Batch of 2 targets.
Target 1
Amino acid sequence: MIRVAGLAKQYGKFEALKGITFSIDEGSIFGFVGPNGAGKTTTMKIMATLMTPTAGQAFVDDIDVTRHPQKVRQVVGYMPDFFGVYDRLKVTEYLDFYASCYRIAANRRRNIIADLLELVDLSHKADAYVDSLSRGMKQRLCLARCLVHDPKVLILDEPASGLDPRARVEMRELLRELKKMGKTIIISSHILSELSELCTHVGIIEAGELAAEGTVERITEQLSSDRLIQVRVSSGQETAADIIREQPGVAVVTETADGILQVSFSGDSARQTELLRKLINAGIPVLSFAETSNSLEDLFMRITKGVVQ
Amino acid sequence: MIGNPVLTKELRDRVRTWRSPMVITLYLGLLAVVGGFFIFEQTRGGMGGPRVYRMGIEIFNVMAVLQIGIIAFLTPGLTAGVISGERERQTLPLLMITRMSPLAVATGKLISAISYMLLLTVISLPFYSVVFFFGGVSLSQFFQVSGILMVATVLLGSIGMFFSSLFKRTTVAIIVTYAATFMLFVGTIFLTAFIMQITRYYIGSPVTGPQTVPFVIYFNPLVALGSVLPMGGNILPFSTGNLAVQSLTPWQVNLLLDAAIILLTMGLTVWLIRPNRAGTKRRG
């Protein structure tokens, strides 16, 4: 559905994108993760035909974004990381304006707008001025705007930024609903835990380069090859530390108070269970044996070194 | 053109502000006060005799000059924010990724501004009826003057829109547009006088006939207006001079120049707002 090959963008001497490559299957939700200035927005703008790349190619619905931008615009709904609303228009007028800009016939517009307002739960605000809406409502209205021409692909740049927890949950539910409708969604965010729950695929970008890319499961598996394990023993802390140090894949063992050992371990799940077995067989009274973190956020923090902030 | 969504939105948007009725009130008030004062002054000595014929023409001329002055004052303000305002609201990229072409967006914006000026012209028609009460002005002259005013509006509107698409900030666009308008109305007169003075100093005055007026004066909308007004020589800058183009009337030359400027500025506006420029601001 979406293919990006060697995409590069240069602003003067600054390289915003350094030849990134990835692909997204139809009907999936692709989470684009990265610190500020990493190149997420630039990539999304290129895919939305708002920017031309310095090098490389991007295809949306198998259409080249540089060669056929008009065709791409018909299959893409783009939501930038800002509201972009006309305050003096009413909610229905706002959607009607964009629907007419997409050349949707006047007799079809009324039904489309009613359906969209119902989808984003704004039917009760149909006659309200856009200016009077809350931030969360404006964000949902913007999502409705990029759906007016029923695009196959949605490119959403930080749709949850600045929203309160309730609005975030509502936005997440809305995106799940859109996935059920068969839309392919590209979403960028800093809220990594949200992305891991929502996305089928994740791409981690830093300083214009794609640091990791794949399904959420694969990325998490990558994480598990370099995990941090916390072992708590009731006695024999020194002996336990020695046993752990002898095991293959163990990088660092840090002993802390109260019989706690922090183990930096690079190995799969089988090696992890082997490590626990060795401790038990040696008669070490193990109180707990657990990974301290196993989140996408952790992987993000390890992969990205905070070069761009 | 009425199916242009940008035009429809702009027209709706424009009448929803408090500024719109205020401008209409001020405009009509200014015309009423200045026009009324002029009529009062002219008719103080009575309304009989051959002076009445001249009186109608003079009132008409004053109204026309006043109106072009108001157009010069209002049009930059109405147009210099139309594109930069979209940029500031960050709605321009959203507009440019729809099926609207940059040309449709630019013409929609320009026509909406002109429509507003047309509205101001139409509501001022009752004032012109006073002129016909005195006589001396033909209907064709009235239409000719209206045409000149309309072209001046489109000219200033397209200049305003060009600067609006060139500069990111509305304030800068407005200042530069007013400066350009000032250059057209006043700057061209100073430049003409300067060139004539230099020519006279270095080359000397012609042996016979008046001195040639440099071509630059044709850019001045007042030249076009002065050449169509009855007894308009009074307001025509350098009316005693020998104009550079003899085969065409001044308003015809001005019209051709205006058409060239309008096409150039509109073309540049369309180029400046094309989609892959609309979102070039670097973020994240």
Note: Chain A touches chain B through 42 residues (CB under 8 Å).
Target 2
Amino acid sequence: MDDRTHSWLRPLVAVFVGAVFFLPLYLVVVNVFKPGADIVPHPAGLPLPPTLDNISAVLSRPDNLFTFGLINSIAVTALSITILTVLSAMLGHYLARSKRVLAKVAMVTLLCGLMIPVPVILEPITGVLKTLGLMTSLQGLVLVNVGYYVPFGVLLFMGFVRSVPLELEEAAELDGASKLRVFWQVVFPLLRPASASVLIFLGVWIWNDFLTPLILLGPDSGTTVTVGVYRAIGQHQSDFGAVFAFMFLATLPILVFYLALQKNFVKGLTGGAVKG
Amino acid sequence: MRRSIVFCLVTTLAVAGCGVGEKPAATPASGGKVELSFLVFETPNLNAAFWDAAIARASAKVPGVTIKKLVTPNVDRTGYAKQLDASGHLPDILQSVNPAGFAEAGKLAAFTDDELTNFIAPKAGAVDGKIYQLPYNTQVIPVVYYNKDAFAKAGITETPKTYKDLLDVSAKLKAKNITPFVVGGGGADTWADMYPLTGTVATDVYAKTPDFLTQRKDGKVKFADADFTKAAQKVADLAKQGYIDPAGLSRSYADTEQAFRDGKGAMYPMGSWFATSADNNKPGFEIGAFPWPSDDGTPVTPTFTGGGTSVSASAPNVDLAKKWALAFDEDKENNDAFVKLDGSIPAIKGYTPPTDMGPVYQATVAIYQQGMKDNSIVNAFSQETGDGSLPPGLADKSALGVQDLITGKKSAGDFASYLDDQWAKATQ
Amino acid sequence: MTEIQHGTRGEVDPAAPRQSPSHGGSRQRGAAIRRRASARIWPKLGRFGLFALPGLVAYVVFVLIPIGMTGYYSFTNRNPFNPPTKWVGLRNYGDLLGDQEFRQALVNTVIIAVIVTVFANVGGLLIAMLLDRPTKLYVALRGIFFTPVVLSAVVISVIWQAVLTDDGLLNSLLRGLGVDHPPGWLSDPDLALYSIAWIITWQMLGFCVVVYLAGLQGVPRELQEAASIDGAGRLARFRNVTWPMLAPALTINTVMLLITGFKAYDQIQVITNGGPGTGTTSTMAFQVVQTAFNGNHIGYSSAMAAVMLVLVATVSVIVLRLLQRREVTQ
């Protein structure tokens, strides 16, 4: 009833709140397409006519900060999240099904790991990587990502596994399928929405991480786009056009990635809990 | 099945992409026998093109060296060098990294007297009498740059000669609704707020006790002693009277300079490197320069000499690395570039700056030369390196403390004892 | 020269004997899991236990061992610039007790975590209820609210710095509206911490919106209608029907927000560097990194890290317990 009488109110309020919320992002997007000289006097004005100068300046940097960073970021993110999805699905499945005390202990230990900021243990992590001979390598960074983000993957998968009926697994096993096949062909496909959430979240976090690659990759083996953003801030300082263009380009791939997977994402995140 | 194919594809794709990094900077003239890494930092003035050209010039003089350029993620190259060292990857050659800590721990190679014959101040920044960073240039810190239009508007005809004059000038500007000082230091650029204090410490502490920090190390003096507290009090008073706008504390270094250019304040106490920026990119008003005045008008010229390259003791070929570092810092064209882009005053014997330098740079160099003539050169507080400098990390702490001084959260006395506490912590 | 060698030995030594026992520990644990797994009552979990291993190993090697090393360092005076490393017992912890800066960083972290958790939860729920309609407009708005979640904290920091500095966009707007002295959002020591908390809240808001929306859509229509036929008012309907159904969403959001709040580091590093002034916006993570990398006091920073880890672990266990109990009883 209320909805009828105030039908104009809800969209109005929603659009207004959304617009205020979006304002800071709007400022970035318009200024990417504006000549540098116009940004400070008219920060909020529309870019008319729009220019691609800022974007092409970033793409054609002589030091290839963006291009190399992009390739490294894609490599690190793709490898890390693929491995993470598989490993945390397996671990999450085990922990959700097991009733043993040891599994409970492992679960609590993993959950504690969720709230540890990387910077706090970064110094000893470099020590471990040095011992393994993996310091300043992409492989080392990927492994650290895997270890550090496993708890989050496990948390999501555990919630979801509980909503998958045990009978399915048992039936498959009665048919004589090996454990590997049961997991890979029965369990894992059922966890698809959770996998989407894990891929998106960890993809976003790993892509956006800046301190870990900054320290673990060091300066020689190139850098990631997010470290590139940080570096571009120092180089250009108040040249907002250049900084915003770099930020815009560095964000675009991960945004596209999110949009591609978003349908499954909410279901996976809440699927186990909200519906179960 | 399809899933695992996709998985394989992604993995191979990713593996194939592994290890893409920056290629070593081109060094066409070298034979490329030894590869040395060189850590530089980029700013709007000292950009990638500048470093590449300067590196190529030095490499042309030292055959057998290939330089791999490494770039710091922000201007805090000393912090980054520490992080690299902590992970076992200290670069072979370092540009403008404070050697404090590195030198004492034996991580840097010392330059011999013979190697330093071309330097005007071959002992500047020495650690236990040894030089770990080439003293290639001098900076006057601070110089007070001022907006001539704003001074004229406030009816000020003469630059201040004594500290009282400076306060009078500030009062006049304030009366005309012009903020007297632009002081910044937001975000990672907290260091930018140090310059008024560097000025007052020079006039009120170092003029009397040039080796104050050495005495502090030996426990003979304290920051809480009267002289230093008075220097801090002066800064606190400037803020209290509204001569320094605390709003500056959210401005990054670049924004601070922009604020001065936009006329948001009449005086800009800054290092001498601002001179060429002012000349190269002139604001809409004329800029003048005067030294930070002392109470009775006796000249005091706080300077820092050093700031050049250092060589890691674990470089693959230390001698060659040192040779390259010397070539880099002594090269006439490199110094011309530093002068033109970064307003440095090279401390190399026989060096003369390009003749076409602008008026603000000329005025700045004149202040330095006057200081040499008056024999009024002292250290620039918090900028020192080597013996008689602040222990590692303390310069950052003092910059944060200065913010409290400006916002009034700490009194001058609190600030001084805070520094004493931090000193104790840093050296425990 | 001999001194140098001494120095590097001093750095490496404490690490070496530590790692082997911990490695051994993980092997032992792995063996234990396998042994027990093979003797299980449910045979089907036997191999799945094996599947659990790689993830656990990665976690042990790159998180638990470093935590163990941190714990060990916290009893030493480890400083790479001041070798050799010596055992100092509880001295670092004793020093922490009187360390004003660390106490402030701790308080700041808790303030940020609480503000972010409360405001993003409340704001997220309100906006989710506002957007709980299936038309295109609301779906698009949902996307807008979620965008910041996808952005890097570095990018968010740069954007908000441009908005909140004293001559920034917000204050220009306020001046245009006739406010002569708009607040120094980042330069006023009394405000800066709240500005930082706001920035993190803004970034996480969209996450809460999406999770609450999923929760709201899980509330069966029939229940709502039944309640309104019974004559329940809007508030009562929300309290008795909707809110209990949102318990799992609340758990997810609270855990995520606490994680984000306790980890706050990037924003501090980019926007305030812990200032304005000494430690006004410093968080625990920031304080640890500063002490470790700028002051080189690895021993002391490890003690800070250890305190932080214990605190964080306690909070996360308590919060999870509380929220899950609520889910079960509902």
Note: Residues 26-138+305-361 of chain B form a domain with the D-Maltodextrin-Binding Protein; domain 2 fold (CATH 3.40.190.10).
